[in-house]
Amino acid sequence: MPVVQNHGGPNGWKLHTTRQSMVRWFCWLLGVAIFLYCWNVISEATTWFFVWDSPRIAGDIGGRAMPPKWEYIDKLWEPIWDTLNMATLGTILALIMAVPVAFLAARNTTPNAYIIRPIALFIIVATRSINSLIWALLLVAIIGPGVLAGTVAIAIRSIGFCAKLLYEAIEEIDVKQVEAVTATGASRWQVMAYAIVPQIAPAFAGISVFRWDINIRESTVLGLVGAGGIGLQLQGSLNTLAWNQVALILLVILVAVVISEWVSAKVRGAII
Amino acid sequence: MSTATLSDVGLDDRLGRAWKKPHFITNPVLRYALLGVTIIYLYLAVNSIEVNWARVSEGLVRGWEFVKAFGNPDFTSRWTDIREGMIESIIITIASTVVGIAISIPIGLGAARNIAPLPVYIICRAIVAISRALNEIIVAILMVAIFGFGPLAGFITLSFATIGFLSKLLAEEIEDMSRVQAEAIQATGSSWLQWINYGVQPQVMPRLIGLSIYRLDINFRESAVLGLVGAGGIGATLNTAFDRYEFDTAAAILIIIIVIVMALEYLSGVIRARVQ
């Protein structure tokens, strides 16, 4: 009778062998233990009285926040403009710096795979792993509060992201086109301009719009550490507990995020 | 072929017009209009940035000090603060990732059009949209206001952020799955739970593991800044270090963050390569 195969015991077919299920069971046990430990630490650091009180607090805040203070919008136009500029100029600056880094990091275009490529990869990892708020914190300490610090923070944070996606696109290009252009006797730069750039241009446009969308989101909060934009107003309203202003600012941020996502989706749809 | 010799007609005429690179935007009116708008925007934008050059040049000295501090980071003098902050960040990361995944799976199932009924689908998609639209820091501010300072606010923030990310990608993966396998399980007379467990889950598991590890990585990076708004973790220590211009301590913290992120990225690469 080939229908009943006793694999894991008398109960018929089983997904795993006994050994596999033991290993799995042990992994689950370990995972649950780690999680419970973590939860315990969080729980000890929490004042539970405040947590039990939180529904009332949330209701209180909600009551103060509604209705939003609509006339406050007059004071928000300039911060909104600053936020937009931080995101846009930051993205442009980042792209200017990311392109050479990407060409140095891609295996097929790097001039030296043992020294320059690791350096380029390190720049990518280092800029990517530090959040833009931390960059803003650092830059506010260095060049003072203001839109400039925010723009540079956005730019630095975006280098790694753009360069990583771009160098992956460069590594995936079609070698035949490069060979064809090289065969006409083109110089290194001509090969770059006529064989490599046209192949990565759509990816480049897609990446820039994608990053711009993310940067709009990130630039809305940079003001919290003093780097200009609408976050500055948010910080001020929070400090004065003006919850109806906070509500309006959050609404504006939400609208900005939705619009930027829509624009980015449209542009990417048109390009790709 | 014409019978004209080289001397009759110039070489350029015989070859036709010289080749030019085609333009990216073919319509010239649109092209120049876009160019004009871009230039005007850039002019206005750059002009609206107020730069206090005296402050900047003064700051460059400090910037150089920071760069030097990176070569000579100070791990020791604030080690207890750094250690506690780091442990708290890691704990927030792990706990919020676990809870986030646990909540994401049912929402992800609900947000997949091919297995969820329409009302459930709409509710789950709405949850995903809200979670994705709100920036982590803004959620953290609200959570700190509601639950008080401490890691609990950070934990809730990151769990909430994880839901938007993971549910959306999981739902897309379920929508792309092969219906054949799921139908085969259904044909054996399985219950709904068995159907999900044996028909759907094996198909999306590799991707789910990969995404979870990736999200762990993101959550760690985010947990490093939550402290700025009082939601626990290393961010508070970092903020204090910057405020006191203790760049060597700040550099030490940043180096630890970079190393952990690199390690996590390497780990996630290894695990994803194994499961996929």
In short:
Chain A is an all-alpha fold and 272 residues long.
- Helix content range of the residues of chain B, please? over 70%
CATH superfamily of the largest domain in chain A: MetI-like
Task: Please report the distance between the alpha carbons of the first and last residues of chain A.
Answer: 57 Å
What's the CATH C level of the largest domain in chain A? Answer: Mainly Alpha
CATH topology of the largest domain in chain B: MetI-like fold
Number of helices of chain A: 11
Number of domains of chain B: 2
Mean pLDDT reading of chain A = 84
Percent of residues in helices of chain A comes to over 70%
Report the principal-axis shape of chain B. Answer: flat
Tags for this entry?
heterodimer, A: 272 residues, mainly alpha, MetI-like fold, 11 helices, extended, B: 276 residues, 77% helix
